[in-house]
Known about the structure:
- There is one protein chain.
- By secondary structure, the chain is mainly β.
- It has one domain.
- Helix content is 0%, strand content 38%.
- It is built from no helices and 5 strands.
- Strands 1, 2, 3, 4 and 5 form a 5-stranded antiparallel sheet that branches.
Amino acid sequence: MFQPFIMPEEKQQFNFGSIPIQERVEPVPKCREADNYIISHERYCNLFYGCREGELILYACVDRLTNNYGGV
């Protein structure tokens, strides 16, 4: 899972991360281990595909303080 870099001395207002979701988009990008794809979506913000063990996984931005998806 993607982890944001946080400076220890900095106060953070939000703690965002990403989690895998079951949504799919068309056209489906090719699965290449070294590639990531940022994709626009009408329901979520900051979607991206990653390739893990030959499978494309779609990730969405989430606010870890509220457990809400960004853009919903």
